[in-house]
Structure to design on (236 residues):
């Protein structure tokens, strides 16, 4: 018996506060070509409304879109970019009229274009950007501590501060972010950003690494106490 392949969502692309897909991604998921998607659009252009079914980015608008961190590398070679909304993706599925296109569109509609899923995907995508910066600071902190004599491996530093973030968000010590709520993801991002700031400031002051770790633990304890009393809830 052949095992059904799990549907993998495309990486989130956001424009005008809604999820969108490029022509290339749409062609890949509908198992057709960019040429056919483009030809169908040109031949049926009167059935598409800009701002409703698609966004056309060029010039300054495209340059501004490219400045968003997660977009910079993906779209740096584009001079004109078409982004398809849920309604635009539906139009293309209808014009292709293949079993695969309709099957994929139904999954995209439920798991990618759905508003709640979009908010979660957006929070997760933004959270990964913060986490990358946080990880870079932890690596720098490890090198800082190693010069001062620590024998702990780098992974021990990473795991320790990840556990602190997860605890503040009410998540398991290891893993759990893929099933976290938007609020929990926000708390993790807020915590990682704040810890990175504290560690960075302390290293600039040339404090001993053990003192820096102590300051982080005191901060985390104070925040945890506030959370438990429900006085304060940070946003990402």
């Amino acid at each position: 018996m052949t095992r059904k392949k799990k549907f993998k969502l495309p990486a989130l692309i956001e424009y005008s506060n809604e999820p969108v897909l490029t022509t290339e991604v749409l062609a890949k998921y509908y198992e057709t070509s960019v040429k056919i998607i483009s030809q169908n659009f040109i031949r049926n252009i009167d059935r598409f409304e800009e701002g409703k079914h698609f966004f056309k980015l060029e010039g300054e608008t495209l340059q501004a879109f490219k400045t968003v961190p997660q977009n910079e590398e993906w779209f740096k070679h584009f001079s004109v970019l078409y982004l398809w909304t849920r309604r635009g993706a539906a139009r293309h599925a209808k014009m292709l009229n293949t079993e695969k296109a309709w099957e994929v569109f139904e999954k995209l509609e439920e798991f990618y274009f759905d508003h709640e899923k979009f908010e979660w995907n957006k929070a997760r995508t933004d959270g990964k950007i913060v986490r990358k910066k946080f990880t870079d600071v932890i690596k720098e902190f490890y090198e800082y501590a190693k010069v001062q004599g620590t024998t702990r491996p780098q992974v021990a530093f990473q795991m320790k501060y990840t556990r602190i973030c997860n605890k503040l968000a009410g998540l398991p010590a290891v893993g759990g972010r893929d099933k976290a709520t938007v609020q929990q993801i926000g708390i993790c991002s807020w915590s990682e950003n704040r810890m990175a700031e504290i560690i960075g400031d302390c290293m600039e002051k040339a404090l001993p690494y053990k003192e820096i770790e102590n300051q982080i633990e005191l901060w985390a304890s104070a925040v945890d106490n506030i959370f438990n009393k429900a006085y304060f809830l940070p946003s990402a």
Remarks:
- The chain is about 60% helix and 10% strand.
- Strands lie at 13-15, 18-22, 54-58, 80-84.
- The first strand starts at residue 13 and ends at 15.
- The longest helix spans residues 115-147.
